[in-house]
Amino acid sequence: MQLTGAQALIKSLEMQGVDVMFGLPGGAILPVYDPIIDSSIRHILVRHEQGAGHMAEGYAAVTGKPGVAMVTSGPGATNIVTPLANAYMDSTPLVVVSGQVATGSIGTDAFQECDITGVTMGITKHNWLIKDVDDIPRVVAAAFHVATTGRPGPVLIDFPKDIANATMEWYWPSSVDELDLPGYHPVTEGDPALVRRAAELMRDAHRPVLYVGGGVLKARAADALRALAERTGIPVVTTLMARGAFPDSHPQSLGMPGMHGHYTAVTAMQRSDLLISLGARFDDRVTGKISAFAPEAKIIHVDIDPAELGKVRTPDVGIAGDCRLVIGELLSALDAHADAPVTGNLEPWWAQIHEWQERFPLHYDHAEGGAIKPQMVVEQLRDAAPSDAIVVAGVGQHQMWASQYWQFDYPYTWVNSGGAGTMGFAVPASIGAKVGRPDRTVWAIDGDGCFQMTAQELVTATAEQIPVKIAILNNAYLGMVRQWQEMFYEERYSEVYLSPDLPDYVKWAEAMGCVGIRAESPEDVAPAIEKANSIDDRPVVVDFRTDAFEKVFPMVAAGQSNDDIVVHPDQAARAR
Amino acid sequence: MSPAQLSALQGEKAAQPRHHILSVLVENKAGVLSRVAGLFSRRGFNIYSLAVAPTDENEHFSRITIVVDVESAPLEQVIMQLDKLINVVSIGELSPSEAVERELLLVTVDVGPTERSQVIQLVDVFGGEVVSVGSDRLTVMLAGRPEKIDDFEGLLEQYTVVELQRTGRVALPKLDRH
Fold first, then answer.
1. Domain count for chain A
2. Does A305 touch chain B (CB under 8 A)?
3. Nearest to A126 by CA among A99, A100, A149
4. How far apart are CA A432 and CA A421, in angstroms?
5. What is the signed CA dihedral for A311, A56, A11, A146, rounded to 10 degrees?
6. Considering the entire predicted model, what is its pTM?
7. What Å distances lie between residue A413 and A94, A246, A403, A443, A451, CA to CA?
8. Helices marked H in A239-322 — which ranges?
9. Do A307 and B88 touch (CB under 8 A)?
10. Number of folded domains in chain B?
11. Domain identity same for A409 and A315
12. What are the tens digits of pLDDT across the range A336-389?
C-alpha cells in the first residue's frame, strides 16, 4: 500500500491508538492536516499552541495515555516549548509533532524555519527529525515507546513538508526490536538483594515515613502502595505530584510535605529515622535546605530513573525500578519473614504524629463578614463536588490552597504543574483532562494572574463542547509573589497588582461562550458553586473576589531548614 | 581550556587525578554530539577534552572519549545522566591507571637557522615526526601518552609557537595478562 508521508504519519498515530489530538495548522504542517479529515482521530483546534501542549498534558495525566499535539514549524513549534519543558519536569508522556520546512531548505533561514530539535533537546526525553519518508512508522512507534516506558516524558517529532508529500510503501513495526533503539533499555524490576536490604532497614525503623512521589502514579502503583502502607502501618506523605496516590481520608495519611506542606508531613519527615522514597526526587521544594533535611533518616530510594538515586541525597539503599513492581517485591520480602515484625515499634511515633496533627492542623482565619477567604472557596468547591472529581490548578497561592484543602481520595484526580511551575497551566490542562475523562466533573482552580495567560482556550472549550468549570480565586494580585514581597521584602510591592475587575472576568467568560458568575461576598459562594455545578452543557467561569491579603501557611522559606517551618500566626501565638 | 591550562591543571593534580575517562559508544546519528555536549553543559558537568570518530565500517556507531572533571559532579551521576540519552548505547569507565591513553599533537614553530636543528633533534628524542617544512617554520606531529605530549609542549615553550592543536585523548582499557 502506497501512502504519502502525511497519510503514513496519521495512520501511524491511529496504529498507536491515538483517539484525540490537540493542534493548530500552519504552512509546514499543512499536508498532514489533509488526511486528518478522513481519520478516526478527533482533532481539537486550539487558539494558541501552548494550549495544545497543556491540553495534551492534562489528557495524559488523567488517562495514563500519552497526550498528542500537532503544531506547525517556527513560531508554532516554539509556542509549544513551554508545555514540553513542563512535561519534562513532571515526567508526563507527550508526543508532539511539529511541521518543518522542506529538507532542502533546512539551514537556509527559510520562512517559519526554526531548529526545534535543537531548541527542545534539553527538555524532551528524545526528539527526531525525519529525513526519510520510509522512517515514519518506525519513528512514530519509537516515539510512543520512549514517551511511555521507563521514566515517561515528552518527545518531539519534527516533520519536514517534503517528507509529508513524498510516498512510501506502508509497513508497521511488529516489535520493539524493529524500532532501532539500541541504547534504550529502561529498567523495570528492582534488584532482589537490594529489596531484601530495604526490608531489613524497615524492620529496624522506629520512625519511618513513606515519602510518595509522582512516580507512584506514573507506575499505576496506588493499590500496591496502599497494600504496603497497611501491611507496615507506616505513615504516608504524598508530594504535590502524588496527591491522590494515597487517600487523604486514610488514617495513615499525613498529607503533603514541602514548602507549603502540612506541618505534620514536613515535621515527620524531618524527625524520621527512615524515609522510604517511592518515585520521588528530593526536590528542593520538599527538602528545604538539603544539608538540614531529615538529618537522622536512613534513605531507601526507589525510582525508575537510576540517575535520581544519589542525585540530591545519597541513599542507603537505592533501587532502580518501577514502583509498582518494586513495592510488590518489597511486600514479598516482608512476607518471607512472616513471623518477624515488619518494623520496629511504631506506637511512640504515631503518638508523636497525632500530637502534631492536633496542635498544627491546617488553619486559616474564618472571620465572619469581610472578604471571601480563598481556602473557604476550595472547601466549599470540594464539599459540593463528587469525590472523584478532577481538580486542575495553575501555579501560585491558589495551587497550594487547592492541594491543601481538597481531599484527594482517588489517584489521577489532581493535575498541576509541579516541577516547572508554569502559570497558565490550569485552563488548557483542565480542557485536556475533561476530554480524557468526560464522565468526571473537572474543576480548574485558577488564579487571576494565571487565568489571563491562557484564558483564550475557553473559546476552544466552548467550540468543542468541553464543559469544564473554572474557579478563579481572584485576589487582584500575583498573590504568591505578593506574599514573598510582604514577608521578605518589607512589604515593598513591586509589579504585583493586577486589579479585581480589569478585565471583567464575567464579561470575558460570556464573550468566550461560557457562563460567567461572580461571587463578591462569602454569602455568594455557595449559590455560585451550586449554579456552576448545575451547568453541564458549556464551560463555566466563576470569579471569586477573594481576600487579597491572605497568605499560604505553613511555609518554609526558600533555602531554610524544614525545622524552621512557619505556621499560621494564630497557631504560632497559641504555641507560645 | 587551552592546552597550557590543561597541562597546568594536570601537573597540579598529578598526585590525585581529578579526571576520569569515559568511553561512550553512541549511535552515529545527526545531533548526537550536540546531545552529549548539551547534557554536560546543562547539568553543570565539566569536560577537559572530547574526541569522537566512527568505530565501525558502516559508521552506525561512534566512540566519544570524554575526559571528565570528577570534582564538578560525582562520576556515577555523570554516567547515569549520559546513559539516559537515547542515542548512547554503552558507557565504559576508565580510570587513568586502568587505561591506555593516547593523544596527538600538531604544532607549528618559528625556526631560524640555529633553532631548526634543535627542534628537529627534540622531535627525534620524543619520537615525533616533522610533517611540513617551510622556509622559516616547521610543523611537527607527536602522538603519545598525554603526559609525554605535555612534556614536549613544555619544552617547545622556549621557541615561538605559531599554532598548536591537540586532539584530546582517546583511550581503551588495559588488557589483562593471565
1. 3
2. yes
3. A149
4. 18
5. 10
6. 0.94
7. 19, 11, 11, 10, 21
8. 263-271, 284-287
9. no
10. 2
11. no
12. 887 889 999 999 999 999 999 999 999 999 877 789 999 999 999 999 999 999
